[in-house]
Design goal:
By secondary structure, this protein is of the alpha+beta class. Helices cover 33% and strands 24% of the residues. Strands 1-2-3-4-5 form a five-stranded mixed sheet, with helices on both faces.
C-alpha cells in the first residue's frame, strides 16, 4: 500500500470514490462535463500549502482510497494549527480490510509532523458505522457541529 499526494490524472478516480456511497451519489457527478468544477477545485487545493489531497494505492498502483487534509491556522490555543480530515473514502470492494485505519494513522502522523495540536473531522449523522470507526481510532465527539447550506 502506498499513500501519496493526488495528481491531476487521479481526479476521475477520486470523484468516483466520492460518488460511490448513499450520500455521495446525491451530490457528486461522474459526467465528463461535470468534471470541470472538480478540476478547478483540484488546482486550488494543489496550489495551497495548507491542503493535502491524498490517495491510497494498492500493490498494482490502483487508487483504492482518498482523503483530504486541511491545515487551519487560528488564534486560539496560542496561535495553534488545527488539522482537519475530510472526504475519506475507500473503494467498496476494499472496505473492511483495515485500509481506512491505515489512512487515518498516516493522517495522524502527518498532522503531528506539521505541529498541529489536533486532528478533527465531521461526519454525517446518517453514517453511524463511520462514527463508531472514528471513535475506535480515539476521536471523541466533544463538540456539536452545525452547517448552514446556501442555495447555488
Amino acid at each position: 500500500m502506498n499513500i501519496r499526494k493526488a495528481a491531476h490524472n487521479d481526479l476521475p478516480f477520486i470523484v468516483g470514490l466520492l460518488a460511490d456511497d448513499d450520500l455521495g451519489k446525491t451530490r457528486e457527478s461522474l459526467q465528463i462535463v461535470a468534471l470541470k468544477p472538480y478540476e478547478l477545485a483540484f488546482d486550488k487545493i494543489n496550489a495551497d500549502k495548507n491542503q493535502e489531497l491524498m490517495v491510497l494505492e494498492d500493490e498494482h498502483s490502483e487508487i483504492i482510497g482518498t482523503f483530504q487534509l486541511s491545515f487551519i491556522q487560528y488564534l486560539t490555543y496560542t496561535g495553534g494549527l488545527r488539522a482537519q480530515i475530510e472526504a475519506v473514502r475507500i473503494r467498496k470492494d476494499k472496505r473492511g480490510l483495515g485500509l481506512g485505519k491505515t489512512m487515518f494513522l498516516w493522517a495522524i502522523e502527518r498532522a503531528k509532523e506539521r505541529n498541529a495540536h489536533l486532528l478533527q473531522l465531521t461526519t454525517d449523522k446518517k453514517r453511524p458505522d463511520a462514527l463508531e470507526f472514528y471513535k475506535s481510532l480515539g476521536f471523541r465527539d466533544s463538540h456539536e457541529g452545525m452547517k448552514l447550506h446556501f442555495e447555488q
